[in-house]
Amino acid sequence: MKKAFFFFLILMHLAFAANAKNIDVYPTNWWVDMKTNSIQLLIRSTGEAFSSDYAGINYSGIQVLKTHQFSNKKYLAVDILISPEARPGTVSIEVIQNGKKQKINWTLNSRRTGNGTEYAQGVNSADFIDLIMVDRFSNGDVTNDRIKGMRDQSLDRNQMYDRHGGDLQGVINNLDYLQGLGITALWFTPIMENDMMNRTEHGYAITDHYKIDARYGGDAKYKELSEKLHQRGMKLIFDAVYNHFGLYHFLEQDQPENDWVHRWPEYTQTNYREQTLFDPYGAKSDQKKMSNGWFDKIMPDINQDNPYMANFLIQNCIWHIETFGIDGVRLDTYTYNDLNFANRCNQAILNEYPKMTIFGEIMVHGVANQTYFEQNNIDTPFKSNLPSVVDFQSLYYGIIPALTQPFGWTDGVNKLYYTLSSDFLSKNPMQKVLLLDNHDEHRFFSVVGKNVEKQKIGFQWLLTCRGIPQLYYGSEVLVKGFKDPDGLVRSDFPGGWATDTKNAFTGKGLTEDEKSTQDLVRKLANFRKTSSALKTGKMMHYVPVDGLYVYFRYDENQTIMCVMNTSTTEKEIDLQKYDERTADFTSARNVITEEKFNASTKTTIPAMKMWILELKK
């Protein structure tokens, strides 16, 4: 009898365990001693529906505040409060399915140590970011090129929009190169699971917020990369997408309610008009289309007014930071989010991680338009708390026209001067992220007509102007391409695959122009690491004259003079003309060439050249 009863208990345990496998909880775990201690668990059954909204937890330090059931009975929302007395352990959550109680194990962990010092450190003007598309950087593990059961089984480097096989192991293998180049922080386009039919190389159609894509190496490899970066004193930036997810996300395919994404009578795309959000004469219908319209038919637009959806997103970002040791957050398509939600999300992150850097993708036209979405000095009804932005204005209306337009009253390098002069609108101009190109922009080398000197000027500006410089992988070796029609902006990094004949990691097969550009970036970026003026110093610039633009980065310990000649003729340089910054200095050293000259002697800078001069007393 005792044996029969024992056997019965074993069967019940096995049945219970099997059932538990069909229930998922989001977030998948949490931590003790978090400021964010009021959590909303989203419990999802992939098997039987829940019979009621009952959810019981008998765990010291955890209190169930409220439960909610949806029209889709396979979901429950459970609000819990984790007290300061709660200790790490396995939490048993009890629910009812088909009239029977079922138990789910959910984990409460110890927190990471070093909030603000070992992770969540923030990214600042002392850093140099490299933006990498993991699928296009380096294939370090060929065994994960295709994953059985995933929808996209493409693998063809000859097709720009197929997968190419790059992974996180490939990044790990080349950390020496990246750090040697002067890079201090890595930002990847999203690497969460992207189980779509095609075009999964970019990562922006997420299908599971709580999984790192297995084709990149999964959660374990991402944690390994984070650890190796931090061991080197480098940082990790997380690309968060709140505006939309992929059509095959479980919250769309098996939606709790019909209002977790924005629904329209017929497919309605966003109008991409950020002006509708602040236009004093704008129509509400245009504003609604801007914020609630879909990016694409395969990317449902998330309804952040839905409190359950909003909680899901906010908790997920905090979960990523704590799980993987994130140091900075880049927010995709920021202008299309509900801005009140965005403020709430930003604040939740900063409450938990006070040193965290958050910067938004504000791909708009006009400095004031961009400034509206960040912390600013503008008197408007809505006030953003976003600390920083990707500074597309200094790209579109700054360095590009400076190097591609003839000099004029409002043209050429004067546009760069005008754009930077508008920094008075922003609270934190030194936190703006500068760029020459990225995964959505034409490669800068192609934009400047494959002119090597112009590319080099671009890099010298990038690494000396105010703000946080961001490189796009491969541009340091003159990777070229336009967005349309071939998508070559997302070409593979040379040397990332065993069959590559050109290898930018080692220098094999590079042309002299490619080597010299790479060397310039390496030398200047590493000089910048020890340059207090370039990392955190103030900036002063002078009105451009006949294509000659001069600006300074300076502090009490160092003065750097940057001379950009965008003219077609050489220009005379007289340091005495800039005596507000050059007084008392007797000599200057060219940081790139090491050439020295007397500060009292006039000299000439050749056409389409840039000098970076360290002034000496």
Automatic annotation (TrEMBL):
Keywords of this entry: Glycosidase, Hydrolase, Signal
Record bears the keyword tRNA processing: no
Superkingdom of the source species: Bacteria
Signal peptide: 1-20
InterPro entries per UniProt: Cyc-maltodext_N (IPR015171), Cyclo-malto-dextrinase_C (IPR019492), GH (IPR017853), GH13_cat_dom (IPR006047), Glyco_hydro_b (IPR013780), Ig-like_fold (IPR013783), Ig_E-set (IPR014756)
Domain Glycosyl hydrolase family 13 catalytic: 131-528
A Pfam family matched in the record: Alpha-amylase
Protein's UniProt name: Alpha-amylase
Species assigned in the record: Flavobacterium pokkalii
